[in-house]
Amino acid sequence: MSVTELEQRLAEFADRVAALPPSEELAAAEELVRDALAELGRGRKRRDGGPQREQKLLRQIFRTMPVPVIVMDPSGTVRRINNETTRLLGSPAGYLIGRGFPLLIESSERAAFRAQLSAALRSEESTTFETRLNHQGRTHTVRLVLSRLRMPGEPQEMVAAVALPTEVQLPEPPDRAQAPDEALFLAAARRHELLSRLTRLLLDEESLREPVALIRAARLLAAETADWVIADILRDGVPHRSAVIAPSAEPVARLQRAVEALPPADAPLVAHVLATQSGLIHEMLTDEGLLGDDLLAQMRAGSLLSVPIRTDDEINGVLTLVRLRDRPPFGLADLGLLEEVALHLGLALRAQRSFQRSSNAADALRSGVLPRTLPDIQGFETAAIYHPGSGLRAIGGEFYDVFPMKGGWGFVIGSAAGRGDEAASVTSLVRNGLRVMSVWERDPGAALRKVNDALVAQHTGLFVMAAAGFVRGRKVRLASAGHHPAALLQPDGGVRFTDGGGVPLGFEEGADPATEELTLAAGETLVLYSDGLVGSRSADGAGYGEDRLTEVLARCANQPPAAVVKAIEEDHRAFTGDRIIDEITVLTLRRAR
To answer: Which PROSITE patterns match (predicted)?
Structure first.
């Protein structure tokens, strides 16, 4: 815009001010505008600066005008403010630019302001009215003068607002002897409690095992701080709508289905957050198409927050919260809280994916070290239980097997002194190696010794406690490599234990397992168990131990193996209160009558 055009606009503006009802404030404003016109005339006559100097002059005049002037677009978004406006409101220009001017107006008078703004856009005349501004703890009673600006080169018209203060209410100075603002403390405490509850929710084991973390977090946010919660998760770089929580007190089922069905890739808001990788806040919504179509209008949305669900190195999706028009709008504190929530959620989703990958790998490995069913063995009954532990201890350490061999059959039970995929692969080596060795070796001790040497040669750094037996007729040849002694339950309820002992597999080359031979009478039951059973502890720290196992077995006299393992399982669950941390394995075999 040239100086001549600016002179014309300012002259029109001065005429509009002069046409308003007379007052001292308006007279002062008219005089200031006339002075600005005179200065422009003098600058034009000098003709020593060209267009660039003219623009600098215009900016300087705008900045130094001694009355607050705000330039906003038709939606009420602040585009420019001058120095006097920042002095009046107490905020730097950079903070207010891009924000909705109606947010500065007392909430009870915002509707009236919007009506006056619409009137100014429709009319060639300026509109004036009295209203109250609330900002930085101050209340300003002002007379606003709104005038439409047509600016060449601009795609839309602007509105200039002159704020003429008539009354300013300053906050009382704080009394240092008084306690701090209780409301601020309560709000901070509520945000802290919400974040703590979310953390506990995301760290729950079920949130890791099952894909429920996202929906649980969305429900918590909807209950505590928003009316609508929408979560969109990236899959192969494309956002997919994963959770939509609607107000429970309103009949919005059809609208909820519409929100769920709309592709998030079509929502300008989601695209913006993913592109900028930063959150945004709309304290007062002016664009009702941010979620696509007119969903925000149908929701009766008043304010909105949207942040990326992320970790430090990747974006997982977008989390959006909406409050209705009858609720206080979101503020900067809410934006900071939601950014922290989204970071927690991103870390939880990453942990869930990692846990599920490990769990799937463990399931695949475990299927190679645990038999699907126990074989039928003539003259014997068998039963077994296996329970995975919790967390990382659920993966891979224990195994058992029952298998046919020449002239009889064999069995093995064991556990690796380690966890994870490597432990599961080592136990698989022991189980399958013993099956191979049973083809050539008639003694389980010799078979375990060769498996031990093979394990040492692998340099895994892990060792395995194992007990193996070869059964021929009534004779059981039993070998132990650092395993707990087996229990022998007799028909009269007596319980005795084998010798056990020996050196664990993988500890040193050439180590000999401890061996012994048993003759099972009819009705006798051999019980083999893992360290996860006798080594487990109750909530108060007491150990389960072999003494308690003896008491349980004594109550199982003359019961089949399936009943014995069930009794052990139920007693252990009662002892630990369902807190099964380590893996637990029990294998029983009973000589039939």
So the answer is: PAS
> What one-letter code names the amino acid at 261?
A
Burial class from Cβ neighbours inside 10 Å (0-12, 13-18, 19+) for residue 120 reads buried
What is the rounded distance in angstroms from the CA atom of residue 534 to the CA atom of residue 245? 47
Rounded distance, CA 377 to CA 381, Å?
A: 7
Contact 20, 26 (CB under 8 A): yes
Residue 487, pLDDT score: 95
User: Is the sign of the CA dihedral 501, 503, 505, 511 positive or negative?
Assistant: negative
pLDDT score of 570 = 92
Rounded CA gap, 138 and 91, in Å? Answer: 11
The candidate with the shortest Cα–Cα distance to 218, out of 203, 232, 204, is: 232
Taking alpha carbons only, the member of 473, 449, 461 closest to residue 425 is 461
Q: Express each pLDDT in 29-77 by its tens digit.
A: 666 666 666 666 665 554 444 555 666 667 777 777 888 888 888 888 8
Cβ neighbour number for residue 550 with a 10 Å cutoff: 15
| Residue 251 φ/ψ, nearest 5 degrees | -80, 85
411 has pLDDT over 90: yes
Nearest to 545 by CA among 487, 498, 480, 593: 487
Domains identified in the chain and CATH numbers: 3-169 (3.30.450.20), 204-359 (3.30.450.40), 370-591 (3.60.40.10)
Rg (CA), the chain: 39
pTM across the whole model: 0.46
Note the pLDDT tens digit of each residue in 519-541. 999 999 999 998 888 888 888 88
Three-state DSSP class for 69?
A: strand
| CA distance linking residue 277 with residue 197, whole number of Å | 26
Do 279 and 273 touch, CB atoms closer than 8 A?
yes
Handedness of CA 281, 282, 287, 288 (dihedral sign): positive
Residue 24 has pLDDT above 60, yes or no: yes
